[in-house]
Design a protein that fits this description.
Two copies of one chain form a homodimer. With 419 residues, the first copy, chain A, is of the alpha/beta class. Chain A contains 15 helices and 14 strands. Helices cover 32% and strands 20% of the residues of chain A. In chain A, the strands form two sheets. An eight-stranded mixed beta sheet of chain A has the order 10-9-11-1-12-13-2-14, sandwiched between helices. In chain A, strands 4, 5, 6, 7 and 8 form a five-stranded antiparallel beta sheet that branches. Chain A is globular. The two termini of chain A are 24 Å apart.
Amino acid sequence: MKAVLIIADGLGGRPTDLAGKTCLEAASTPHLDALASRGALGLVDPIGPGVRPGSDTAHLSLLGYDPRRVYTGRGVFECFGIGMDVCQGDICFRANLATAEETPDGLKITDRRAGRIDRGQDQLAAVLNDVKLTVSPKISFEFQPSTQHRGALLLRGHSIRLSSQITENDPHAVGAVAPDSKPNPDVIEDAAARVTAAAVNEITKRSFELWKDHPVNRARMESGKPSANVVLLRGASDAPHLQSLESTYRVKGAVIAGGALYRGVSLACGMCQLDVDGATGGLDTNLGAKAEAACKALETYDYVFIHVKGTDNAGHDQDAEAKRDFIERIDRELIGPLAQQLDWSKTHIAFTGDHTTPIDFGDHTTEPVPVLFAGPNVMPDGTQEFHEREAARGGLCRFSGQVLPILFGYCNWSPKFGA
Amino acid sequence: MKAVLIIADGLGGRPTDLAGKTCLEAASTPHLDALASRGALGLVDPIGPGVRPGSDTAHLSLLGYDPRRVYTGRGVFECFGIGMDVCQGDICFRANLATAEETPDGLKITDRRAGRIDRGQDQLAAVLNDVKLTVSPKISFEFQPSTQHRGALLLRGHSIRLSSQITENDPHAVGAVAPDSKPNPDVIEDAAARVTAAAVNEITKRSFELWKDHPVNRARMESGKPSANVVLLRGASDAPHLQSLESTYRVKGAVIAGGALYRGVSLACGMCQLDVDGATGGLDTNLGAKAEAACKALETYDYVFIHVKGTDNAGHDQDAEAKRDFIERIDRELIGPLAQQLDWSKTHIAFTGDHTTPIDFGDHTTEPVPVLFAGPNVMPDGTQEFHEREAARGGLCRFSGQVLPILFGYCNWSPKFGA
């Protein structure tokens, strides 16, 4: 048996100006419809009914974990996603390169994304990573940039305990002063949180000292671009305790995802990472290359998880036509080739989204998402198309999370609970 | 956005003598049917499949709380519902005014409701509330009557810990002796439970001493009515830890409910109470006044919760025609005016019950209840009527509790879990 899980980020929708249809209803999706005819549909609440999912928590839940128990924050998945080596006890952060101005009140943030800087990030990282923290010689750190202004930072204590229970220093507003990190207000007096916050504050301060006149920024200023002169840190999180999918199911899997967060969640769950040229995590991603890489990976791996981000981007941009068109591209360039090339006598596929991102709202909402399963062990339920309203009539009814365990169940890979 | 939640208590049913239809099927409900045509239906298990709900636990679950975690007993909601000031550490009781006869074995209860006494309760309460407990000067209490024989009692320890882990003294049977309250048998030797039980026993004993010859009761005896000469206490509960709906969703809501228990649950969750003339919590309630109050409240509040009790009363009375007729009144006098007066371009509504109360059984059962959502962000599912069988075909399928979070999700009010 082989298995393919495809999550189109933010796939679900509400009726739009496209003749009152959702983007998925409005899209022409002959390949998905053919899979629906052979398979079965349902509605999945990514985390649970009435719960508005983040992308990280939703993915954990769809992969079979209970995010209420295991979720420790976003930072750790960013670190995993960039390929950083996370150990128990480390504190992980999502990091932004930003633009700051020195004021008597502190560092005023004038651009949270440093003009979406697209080169020189590694040189900035190199000088910052040479810093030895004075707050404690027992704390080391590593900052690693990913795409544009994005990156991750990992704090490690050596014979000293650190804590994720601290406030962030990203003010989330342009023109505001970056606040000092402090122990969370609801944390009882805790030396670990105090020293961790102090380390964050020292790193931020040192980044500004080292970067404000760095050659990368002098060049940016000369060409009229905002400096990338400070690092902002948020999403402080501990390494979560996640039993690996391989140890649970005894199968090996690989992830194909452009976005670091999705790679990070998958790696944290024990998948291997496949790098695909042109997998950008955007609307311009190379879907055909993902299909090809997936088919090739299935020669080696038992299952492949393909994450596609463009649907969510178009949803956040509130662009119904872009979302519809991207769904049509998924159908034509990803589902079509898979449908043609995979051996359907021994392959199961699941296709769904990690949440609803309606055009009218432009952000995640609580509504359930259509889900499709097909393959030799899936009992066809008589549905003929793949979209929200047809899925509501599907034979799989409505359930919460667990799409990967259900897919693996069809593959007869599930361990028995009990005797 | 605005939101309206309506819970018709005990709405769900089973087929009845009304041509084999449920009361909801037998009722003519043009306004609910119109909402169904514009919205979507499903089945909701108030707490979970196969769980037989109480009204308090069902309401907590429908409002988005997990009653398995937060429910501490009924008494606290009775206290909240009467407007008592509950603090952490207090022990709350549902109280009954009852009729007792002195016997060598103790107080024999001859009427658990003291002939549904309808005047003089405040005078009885006043003399009881003057008692200083000899069991400990550190324990104070307050008894407050509500309607007829009903009331609530609150015990408060001052620099002394009390415990809800005690047995009740209501024998739940006429002709039986009211048992002494004791620490629960499964409680390990606990001074707090011992002193709390002793306080309950002293209050009960003192109530009989003070009330047996009280002028209120002398007058009752002269006119042949049973004395209200003892207080029975049940449902001992601690103040629950409930995060307020306002702190979770950042919206303000109000409750319109005749019954103290429903007001109590709603107040404990952070809603404000609206008093509506003629909202009795019975079959004779003024539904039009509730509709009017709700429309007016929505000028100030983000959402309104309307509780209607009559459906459950008719179910407990095993009167199918009364239940059907009351459902028709709900449709005509409550739903009709709301449908006409609310601005449906920016209002979402949810209509459901808190459990099934079938005519043949006359008490709560485990079956799921039909639920309806309508409003601009609800995707119509093709259903045309509102009742159990149509709801089973609805596009929302079946889920557990969480009706308020789902309603708020349509309003785009939900906080994101994760990033």
